Amino acid sequence: MNSNKIALYTLLIITIIACSSASVSPSSRCAEPMPDGAKRLMTAYPDYVVGYEDNYIIFWDGSRMIYDDGIKRTFTQMQEKQDVEEIFYQEYDKKIYPPPYGHDPGRYRCAEFFGKIYGNSREEVIKNLVYVEWCPKLGGKPILFTKVAGAAEALKRVSDELDSHPEFKTWIADAQTFNWRTIFGTTRLSPHSYGIAIDMAIAHSHYWRWTCPYANEHDVITYHNTFNMKIVEIFERNGFIWGGRWYHFDTMHFEYRPEMNMPEHGIAAN
Predict the structure, then answer these.
(1) Tell me, what CATH number does 257's domain have?
(2) In a domain, 31, yes or no
(3) Is 208 helix (H, G, I), strand (E, B) or coil?
């Protein structure tokens, strides 16, 4: 065996040992295939997430964010802190209904990621808010929504479709969107802070903290829903997820989350 072959085999053995070492940190792993979640982010936010390399997602400005920090959290711990990978902890699947215990797909929001996309302060978010004509034929009024990642355009499509159904008039009232605030009963920033969420038809809705006011995140609760499922279907066709598919139900709540539900790009709820 000549010296070139010996050198090649030696390099191969060293590489295998390095890749199989349990002590390698998440940020210094050997090259791996791109995770499905990273692919979804690049598809859903093509102007913002432009690449993936060595366990980091890469943003349009060249900055990077770790994808998987290697920490295994319980679902209650994930409510407080998440890495990017944990956005996809549970699939948004329409066949899973009513949602079983702990099934909250989409509630696991990585604040660092969404702050990067939509803004890390009220002032940064406001710069990208636009008015959307909300169901004018049904008496709706313009509402604020972010234009980032096609969110306002998606809400406009929802509005246009709802507007062709006179029977939805009482359901589109009291729509609430942008509001820089924390989630009720927590210190976590609400998705309303980013201008990507809309609450509507509050009189027809159920929210787990209202229905079960003494319950905690880990408690067993009873699911409630009387929301119009035809309206839910319209939102879901346009890249939104619905809080009624959560065990910790919030049936008035719709949230633009194309990385979890974007039918036109093959990212669709089953």
Answers:
(1) 3.30.1380
(2) no
(3) helix
Q: How many CB atoms lie within 10 A of CB 156?
A: 17
3-state SS assignment for residue 157: helix
Tell me which residue range forms the domain holding 194: 89-265
**Residue 151 · residue 47 · CB < 8 Å:** no
Half-sphere exposure of 263 (CA within 13 A, CB side): 14
DSSP class of residue 262 equals B
Hey, CA dihedral for 158, 164, 167, 173, is it positive or negative? positive
pTM: 0.87
For the chain, how big is the Rg over CA atoms in Å?
A: 22
- 239 within 8 A of 258, measured Cβ to Cβ: yes
Count CB atoms within 10 A of the CB of residue 81: 15
As to burial, measured by CB atoms within 10 angstroms (0-12 exposed, 13-18 middle, 19+ buried), residue 20 is exposed
Q: Report yes or no on 245 lying in a domain.
A: yes
Stated as kind and residue range, the H or E segment containing 162 is helix 151-162
User: How much is the pLDDT for 184?
Assistant: 85
Output the average pLDDT for the chain: 89
Residue 249: helix, strand or coil by DSSP?
Answer: coil
Q: Is residue 71 part of a domain?
A: no
Q: Residue with structure tokens 């929001």?
A: 109
Cα angle 254, 255, 259; round to 5: 135
Phi-psi group of 197: left, alpha or beta (phi > 0 → left; psi -120 to 50 → alpha; rest → beta): beta
Indicate whether 79 belongs to any domain: no
Name the domain count of the chain.
1
pLDDT at 74: 84
